[in-house]
């Protein structure tokens, strides 16, 4: 029906003329002085796009035989009558019904496509059919014709607007472009409004009805027009859609009432349009654009619920050429890929590529595509053109030189000193940022990034002549965008300490912590550097409260950083520094990590950095192993070796390896070089020649007769020389004076230097060195003890360098006051006292000779000299009470104390001829550390040969009465169990019976040892076994001592 309506006057054709331009108008329209249409031109604005008024003169040109088409404004050279339409118009005249001659055919049957009368509507043929009033039919036809003309004008307007935008639009104008950000208000429907109608009446009535939509003042109300359309036709798809778009233009209007009183929202109108036409892509798109977040759901008329992303996908499914749906789907995707309705997987970059195919001149699209590919990636557009990231940014700039973002992005990926744009301009990185600022003076990122490339005290001149420093740029960045998290983070770097403050351009003053906290509040989920920098500002146990009320300490902040990005080694290193060796921290993903686990993770992230292997080695125990992420098991020693392989020029690595090697052990590096512990010390001193500790430690493993030659030294150095060198490098090293003195006899002297140049030396004897050690460190308990020990007999006191005089007893008491566990000081003090003499200790207790000996044994149970001294004192008394000693709760007789001295140290030997015990003073101590090493050696020996009885007895030898040890097969054994195991392998091992004998407290039958063969032996039985196996051993160990004690 719309084909009989004139496109110019919107009335039924009166002599339809086909013009040479292709338009059909009435004959009267050729002579009309009006515009294309009073109705259309009065409307003025349609669907959010401003119409461009015809710029040609609407009058007919006063030239012979030359006129202007009122529809397209083209010159018309010829025209003729369109007979086909003329016949169609003639057929649309009032007729009588063929069946009911007295009634007119004023109704239309939509099923039969014919005109009928009111009587036909109720007969059996048309009773169940859809029959419409021809008034409604004409209105829809006329409405469609009006929409088509307006759409044509809108398209012309859009084309001219785009051309104008490409030439002169600023960044801000483009940024708010309706074609990108807002809902799609274009009209694209397939109308089929009863094209087979053959008759029409009441033409003037319908024309007046249309004109009622235009107020008397001539202004057009779109909302009233569309609401009136819905009132006339409840199933008008286009009317519901267009009414919804008018609501989007007035954000404050949340709902409106239709003709029937129904209150509807914008989405209700779109959903109604979808219900009438489920293939309407625009409705799905506009609903999606109206959703605030991706989690919000909308229920479609079909009952299916969809979120924002699914609605964009549905719009594309409905119209695969819907470019805006591709663009906004890409912009709203949180993941990198999306599965379309046809099961095709598209990446975000593919969606932008698809959009560019429809809009090859859209600057934004190229910029966004560049942001979604890797720096070295090359993509191919649908037109076959290949482009990398730099090409895309350059293309974006070429299409719109006033768009600031591609300048910023291009600068951020440029590694060369300059970059050439498509117009031939050569710009540096700083030039690109300056150009971005010139395009958009409120571009926060441009100021921020420019500041990052400017020196701290450099002054930069903007293209508008403004001069700014680095700090000014950061301040401007924040002023342009107070939500710029990076700006606050970078500005904080200008503050040297936590208490300094800086004033923003809005007048607010903030300190370093406040800047980081503000940065975190803006971006709490991705602001890794702000969390890290804030953590670095805090002290060990300090906490800070964020703006969301959460209280966090250093570890919490580092853990948050890992939650944001778990691939940055520096964060793990910072966290490890704040975790102790026994602590386990819990990450945000629930994983619990110890300190060594953190270092293991760091190695996985940076396997080629030596420092990580070094740190992991330092976190392990001596024989502990750790499993790396790649499955490799590695121990402390192997980690140091790996670190040395990566960096053979750091003395710390060699020192670490030295600390776990035994004195006579050698190590093979990964380069094949075999080094002893001495060699490692020499290598360390070569790398760090002024490290006094290395000279000291090397001296400690040498014997007095050992001599070494360091690289670069022409002379050999012995143990004494190394201590002298250590003192010259560190004159405050108190221990060096003591150990140097220990290498000298009482009459020796040595020249000591207190500077690295080793000049102006001082001649010192043994006692001078001990006194110097006290002067260097006044709380060195060993120095006081040594001074007392080697004080010459004629001297009753000695004067220290501070002028104070001390007697021998005062020196020992001073040693005990500094270190109450100084066992040797108690023993020597006991030796100085008479048999019945006592002395007041620093803790206020009066203690006698015997108690001092017992105290020394309790503090150091592995020194045989202490037992021998106690036993000698006990044997010298006739008093029975003095012949019993209570050590650690056990009552021990004199004989047992003597035997303990034998058992503790093998160098105490018994002289059968004299019945006396004597002591090899050169080896009177067994260091506790040596004991631990011996135990480890024995457990390894048992593991390698479990049938050698000597291994079990040697291990038992190093254990105390109540001690136990875990073998490498995880079996736990006491000292007695080890002796029993020895006897099982060698039934004649007399020493094992001897140990078992002394483990029993008394000779009663209720105390016995159960052997592995089930035999139970008490103390008497064990003694009989010893006598039976080795009579000589029995006589030496028991009879002489027994006679000696009972004299």
TrEMBL record:
Source organism superkingdom: Eukaryota
SUPFAM superfamilies associated with the record: B-box zinc-binding domain (SSF57845), Protein prenylyltransferase (SSF48439)
GO molecular function: zinc ion binding
B box-type domain mapped to chain residues: 92-134
Key words, A-Z: Metal-binding, Repeat, TPR repeat, Zinc, Zinc-finger
InterPro entries, A to Z: TPR-like_helical_dom_sf, Ycf3, Znf_B-box, Znf_RING/FYVE/PHD
Pfam families: TPR_17 (PF13431), zf-B_box (PF00643)
PROSITE patterns on file: ZF_BBOX (PS50119)
Name of the protein described by the UniProt record: B box-type domain-containing protein
Species for this entry: Dictyostelium purpureum
PANTHER family for the chain: TETRATRICOPEPTIDE REPEAT PROTEIN 6 (PTHR44858), UDP-N-ACETYLGLUCOSAMINE--PEPTIDE N-ACETYLGLUCOSAMINYLTRANSFERASE SPINDLY-RELATED (PTHR44858:SF1)
């Amino acid at each position: 029906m719309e084909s009989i309506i004139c496109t110019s006057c919107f009335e039924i054709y009166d002599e339809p003329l086909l013009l040479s331009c292709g338009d059909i108008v009435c004959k009267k329209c050729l002579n009309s002085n009006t515009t294309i249409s009073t109705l259309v031109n009065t409307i003025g604005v349609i669907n959010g796009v401003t119409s461009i008024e015809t710029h040609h003169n609407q009058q007919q040109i006063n030239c012979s035989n030359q006129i202007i088409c009122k529809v397209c404004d083209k010159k018309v050279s010829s025209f003729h009558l369109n007979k086909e339409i003329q016949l169609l118009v003639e057929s649309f005249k009032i007729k009588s019904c063929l069946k009911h001659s007295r009634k007119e055919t004023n109704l239309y049957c939509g099923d039969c496509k014919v005109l009928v009368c009111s009587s036909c509507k109720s007969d059996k043929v048309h009773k169940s059919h859809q029959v419409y009033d021809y008034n409604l039919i004409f209105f829809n036809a006329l409405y469609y014709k009006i929409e088509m003309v307006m759409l044509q004008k809108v398209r012309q307007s859009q084309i001219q607007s785009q051309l104008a935008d490409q030439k002169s639009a600023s960044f801000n104008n483009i940024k708010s472009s309706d074609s990108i950000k807002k809902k799609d208000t274009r009209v694209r429907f397939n109308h089929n409004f009863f094209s087979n109608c053959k008759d029409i009446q009441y033409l003037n009535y319908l024309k007046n009805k249309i004109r009622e939509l235009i107020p008397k003042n001539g202004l057009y109300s779109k909302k009233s027009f569309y609401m009136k359309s819905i009132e006339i036709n409840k199933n008008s798809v286009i009317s519901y859609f267009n009414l919804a778009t008018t609501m989007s233009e007035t954000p404050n209007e949340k709902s409106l009432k239709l003709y029937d009183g129904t209150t509807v929202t914008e989405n209700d109108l779109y959903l109604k349009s979808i219900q009438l036409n489920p293939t309407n892509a625009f409705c799905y798109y506009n609903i999606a654009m109206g959703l605030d977040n991706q989690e919000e759901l909308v229920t479609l008329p079909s009952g299916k619920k969809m979120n924002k992303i699914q609605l964009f996908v549905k719009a594309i499914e409905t119209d695969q050429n819907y470019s805006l749906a591709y663009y906004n789907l890409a912009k709203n995707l949180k993941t990198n890929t999306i599965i379309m309705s046809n099961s095709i997987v598209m990446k975000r970059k593919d969606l932008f590529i698809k959009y560019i195919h429809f809009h090859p001149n859209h600057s934004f699209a190229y910029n966004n595509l560049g942001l979604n590919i890797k720096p070295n990636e090359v993509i191919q557009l649908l037109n076959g053109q290949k482009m990398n990231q730099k090409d895309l940014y350059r293309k974006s700039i070429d299409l719109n030189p006033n768009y600031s973002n591609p300048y910023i992005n291009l600068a951020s990926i440029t590694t060369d000193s300059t970059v050439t744009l498509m117009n031939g301009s050569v710009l540096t990185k700083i030039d690109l940022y300056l150009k971005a600022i010139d395009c958009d003076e409120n571009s926060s990122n441009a100021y921020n990034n420019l500041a990052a490339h400017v020196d701290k005290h450099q002054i930069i001149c903007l293209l508008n002549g403004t001069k700014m420093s680095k700090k000014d740029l950061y301040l401007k960045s924040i002023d342009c965008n107070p939500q710029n998290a990076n700006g606050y983070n970078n500005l904080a770097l200008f503050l040297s300490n936590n208490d300094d403050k800086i004033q923003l351009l809005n007048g607010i003053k903030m300190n370093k912590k406040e800047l980081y906290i503000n940065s975190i509040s803006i971006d709490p989920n991705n602001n890794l550097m702000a969390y890290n920098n804030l953590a670095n500002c805090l002290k060990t146990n300090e906490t800070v409260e964020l703006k969301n009320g959460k209280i966090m300490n250093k570890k919490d902040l580092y853990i948050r950083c890992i939650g944001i990005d778990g691939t940055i080694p520096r964060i793990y290193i910072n966290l490890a520094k704040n975790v102790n060796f026994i602590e386990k921290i819990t990450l945000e993903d629930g994983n619990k990590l110890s300190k060594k686990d953190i270092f293991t993770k760091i190695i996985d992230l940076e396997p080629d950095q030596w420092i990580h292997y070094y740190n992991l080695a330092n976190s392990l125990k001596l024989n502990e192993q750790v499993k790396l992420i790649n499955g490799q098991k590695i121990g402390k020693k192997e980690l140091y070796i790996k670190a040395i392989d990566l960096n053979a020029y750091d003395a710390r690595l060699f020192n670490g390896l030295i600390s776990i090697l035994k004195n006579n052990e050698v190590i093979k590096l990964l380069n094949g070089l075999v080094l002893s512990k001495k060699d490692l010390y020499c290598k360390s001193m070569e790398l760090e020649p002024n490290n006094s500790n290395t000279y000291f430690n090397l001296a400690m493993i040498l014997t007095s007769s050992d001599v070494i030659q360091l690289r670069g030294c022409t002379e050999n150095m012995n143990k004494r020389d190394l201590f002298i060198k250590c003192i010259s490098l560190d004159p405050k090293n108190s221990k060096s004076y003591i150990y140097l003195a220990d290498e000298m006899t009482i009459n020796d002297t040595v020249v000591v230097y207190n500077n690295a140049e080793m000049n102006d030396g001082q001649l010192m004897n043994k006692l001078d060195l001990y006194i110097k050690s006290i002067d260097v460190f006044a709380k060195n308990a060993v120095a006081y003890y040594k001074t007392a020990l080697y004080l010459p007999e004629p001297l009753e006191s000695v004067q220290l360098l501070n002028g104070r005089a001390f007697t021998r007893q005062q020196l020992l008491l001073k040693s005990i006051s500094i270190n109450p566990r100084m066992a040797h000081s108690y023993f020597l003090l006991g030796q100085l006292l008479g048999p019945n003499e006592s002395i007041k200790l620093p803790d206020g207790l009066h203690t006698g000779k015997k108690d001092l000996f017992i105290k020394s044994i309790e503090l150091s149970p592995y020194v045989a000299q202490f037992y021998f001294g106690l036993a000698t004192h006990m044997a010298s008394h006739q008093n029975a009470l003095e012949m019993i000693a209570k050590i650690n709760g056990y009552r021990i007789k004199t004989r047992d104390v003597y035997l303990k001295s034998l058992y503790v140290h093998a160098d105490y030997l018994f002289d059968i001829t004299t019945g006396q015990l004597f002591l090899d003073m050169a080896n009177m101590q067994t260091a506790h550390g040596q004991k631990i090493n011996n135990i480890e050696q024995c457990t390894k020996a048992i593991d390698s040969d479990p049938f050698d009885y000597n291994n079990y007895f040697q291990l038992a030898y190093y254990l105390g009465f109540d001690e136990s040890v875990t073998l490498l097969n995880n079996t736990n054994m006491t000292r007695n169990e080890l002796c029993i195991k020895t006897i099982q392998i060698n039934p004649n091992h007399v020493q094992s019976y001897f140990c078992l004998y002394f483990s029993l407290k008394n000779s009663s039958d209720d105390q016995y040892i159960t052997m592995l063969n089930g035999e139970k032996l008490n103390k008497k039985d064990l003694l009989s076994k010893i006598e039976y196996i080795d009579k000589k051993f029995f006589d030496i160990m028991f009879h002489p001592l027994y006679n000696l004690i009972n004299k």
